[in-house]
Design goal:
It is a single chain. The protein is of the alpha/beta class. It has 2 domains: 186 residues, 3-Layer(aba) Sandwich (Rossmann fold), CATH 3.40.50.10260; 284 residues, 3-Layer(aba) Sandwich (UDP-N-acetylmuramoyl-L-alanine:D-glutamate ligase), CATH 3.40.1190. Helix content is 38%, strand content 14%. The protein contains 20 helices and 16 strands. The strands form 2 sheets. Strands 10-9-8-11-12-13-14-15-16 form a 9-stranded mixed β-sheet, with helices on both faces. A 7-stranded parallel β-sheet has the order 3-2-1-4-5-6-7, sandwiched between helices. It starts with 16 loop residues before the first helix and ends in a 35-residue tail after the last helix. Bound molecules: ligand NAX and potassium ion. This is Bifunctional NAD(P)H-hydrate repair enzyme. InterPro entries: CARKD, Nnr, Ribokinase-like, YjeF_N_dom, YjeF_N_dom_sf. Its cofactor is Mg(2+); K(+). One of its GO terms (molecular function) is ATP binding.
Length: 540
């Protein structure tokens, strides 16, 4: 396979401002703190400046109130060590520097009374950058919201007037790193040192970015490769007081048969724990009767012992009221059931996101043309082999396994495939991530049903299919790990469901726990670092 065709493990070639927050938090969960990242960012910035301006030169560092300013403060310390004459110009009052990391950068600089000069720009219109050889723009980064307000607007104008080398930290201040829009004043940089990975907006405005350099902040590639607490904290929408009933998501679970009564009930319970407004459970009579002890689940009784084509019209009507559907758990392998699954998937509105699990995957194996981009398929290895007609590479050869799954995703409309195993592979053919949260006892029956319910719940909340599958795998695994801690080998899928709220309520609080610390015996893969260079040279 061509290298270009291989999806890189991780979040792709560029990262959004949301990805930045996720990577920070996942990095912290893996033992590399935000403070370390900021320190590395500052050092990388100082080193890039040192490549371009001889030491002894005069450098002004303009510092904003957030993480971007924190990077600038760290850079100032490194530049002082390297022999530059450093003046730091603070646009915010020191007490307005709130993040603990940026604060500690400021405190370290404050006592450097021999080598660094710090001024607070009380009147931003009077900032003069005359006589400097270089200006470091650490005003605003990925946290920019809307056009820069005073005093940052004036500070940006001052940077642009300066007759010096202009180096922007992460993004030219004023540029929206996601869209490339500049809704107000914006820095015109000679060099932009962007951190960890390029942001998409940078490629849209090479005129503002100048030379683009991608610098390491020491975040482990694993912070992107493995789904982690940052994904839960920043990608899962939360209700506000203004949310109306139904807005937080409605899910339709279709599953169960005379022989498998519990599976779809576990899915429904897990979906509910993900914070949904409504959960419909459409299932044969015996399943609906068993679910009656959970009054919060809305039953849709399908008369008879198993799903069959005469139920499809009714299911389509209920599906209209749901934001996402999960189908397959415990449905059984009756020919009529398989036919009903195919008919339903063919007739569902194309915009409706669907999780296809278990017995519904078997139905799909004879009609793979029904697979589409907003589907999440959740096969384990044998189901994958049956569905796509080829076994995936073993878990130990993780890169080959990812490539096998990604290839099938590409062949099937970039649907999301969640290939379950001791380490889960999640890919839409463009991106690929892994989940290692879990516990050996998760081989117990029903944990896969919980996973399907979680994935559907996240889809219903508007999370895009790739991230919904990633987060479902992590939340399910982390809840399983917590259940295992308490019950050991005796844990059941219901113990897992009972711990979903712990993972969702305080995902970052769990970070200190050992959920991501298991080292897996996987064949090593090479991480491809993002390339340096001018955006136009990269044809982007
Ligand atoms: N994982 C990463 O990539 C890392 C990011 N770091 C840095 O952190 C930055 C992000 O930090 P933050 O999220 O704190 O955001 P920023 O530092 O970009 O700015 C946020 C601050 O600016 C204010 N602000 C936002 N829009 C404004 C506007 N239109 N007018 C006036 N003020 C405005 C906000 O109130 C907030 O105080 C990145 O750009 C990067 O420089 C680094 O510390 C290292 C780690
Ligand atoms: K900046």
């Amino acid at each position: 396979m061509e290298d270009a065709e291989k999806p890189q493990l991780g979040l792709g070639d560029t990262i959004s401002s949301l990805d930045v927050a996720v990577i920070d938090a996942n990095s912290e969960a893996l033992g590399v703190s935000r403070l370390q990242l900021m320190e590395n960012a500052g050092r990388s910035v100082a080193e890039e400046l040192a490549r371009r301006v001889p030491n002894g030169s005069r450098v002004a560092v303009l510092v904003g109130p957030g993480g971007n300013g924190g990077d600038g403060l760290a850079a100032a310390r490194h530049l002082a060590y390297m022999g530059y004459r450093v003046d730091v110009i603070l646009l915010a009052k020191p007490e307005d520097i709130r993040s603990p990391e940026a604060r500690s950068m400021y405190e370290a600089l404050e006592v450097m009374d021999i080598t660094v000069d710090i001024t607070i720009a009380r009147d931003p219109r009077r900032i003069s950058l005359e006589g400097y050889d270089a200006v470091v723009d650490a005003l605003l980064g990925t946290g920019l919201r809307g056009p820069p307000r005073s005093p940052y607007a004036e500070a940006i104008e001052a940077v642009n007037r300066a007759n010096a080398l202009k180096l922007s930290v992460d993004v030219p201040s004023g540029l929206d790193s996601d869209t490339g829009e500049a809704p107000g004043p914006v820095v015109r940089a000679d060099v932009t040192v962007t951190l960890h990975k390029p942001k998409p907006g940078l490629f849209r405005r090479p005129d503002l970015v100048g030379e683009l350099v991608v610098a390491s902040i020491g975040a482990p590639p694993e912070a992107e490769i493995y789904v982690g607490p940052g994904d839960v904290a920043y990608r899962v929408p939360r209700r506000s007081w203004r949310t109306h009933k139904g807005q937080a998501g409605r899910v339709l679970i279709i599953g169960g048969s005379q022989g498998f009564v519990g599976a779809p009930v576990i899915s429904a319970l897990a979906a509910q724990r993900a914070g949904l407004d409504l959960v419909y459970l459409a299932a044969p009579t015996r399943v609906v009767e068993a679910a009656a002890r959970y009054p919060t689940i809305i039953p849709v009784e399908l008369e008879g012992p198993y799903l069959s084509p005469e139920h499809v019209d009714r299911l389509l009507a209920v599906a209209q009221r749901a934001d996402a559907v999960a189908i397959g758990m415990g449905l059984g392998l009756e020919e009529a059931t398989q036919e009903a699954v195919r008919e339903l998937l063919a007739r569902l509105p194309p915009g409706k996101p669907v999780v296809v699990d278990a017995d519904a995957l078997k139905a799909l194996s004879t009609s793979r043309e029904l697979i589409r981009g907003n589907m999440v398929l959740t096969p384990h290895e044998a189901e994958f082999a049956r569905l796509f007609g080829a076994k995936p590479a073993p878990v130990e050869k993780i890169e080959a396994r990812v490539a096998d799954a990604a290839q099938q995703a590409r062949l099937h409309g970039n649907a999301t495939i969640l290939l379950k195993g001791p380490v889960d592979v999640i890919t839409d053919g463009r991106r690929a991530r892994l989940n290692k949260a879990g516990a050996p006892a998760m081989s117990t029956g029903g944990t896969g049903d919980a996973l399907a319910g979680l994935a559907a719940a996240l889809l219903a909340k508007g999370v895009e299919p790739f991230h919904a599958a990633c987060i479902a795998a992590y939340v399910n695994g982390a809840a399983g790990a917590l259940a295992y801690r308490e019950y050991g080998e005796s844990m059941t899928a219901l113990d897992l469901v009972d711990r979903i709220h712990l993972v969702l309520k305080d995902p970052l609080g769990l970070a200190g726990s050992s959920i991501l610390y298991r080292r897996l015996p996987l064949e090593k893969t090479r991480y491809q670092p993002p390339t340096r260079g001018r955006p136009r040279d990269r044809g982007l």
